[in-house]
Amino acid sequence: MMREMLQAKLHRACVTETRLEYPGSLTVDRDLLDRAGILVHQKVQVVNCMNGSRLETYVIEGERGKGEIIVNGAAARLAQTGDRIIIIAYASYDEAELAAGHTSRVVVCNADNSVAEVIE
Question: Which residues belong to the active site?
Answer without folding.
Answer: 25, 58
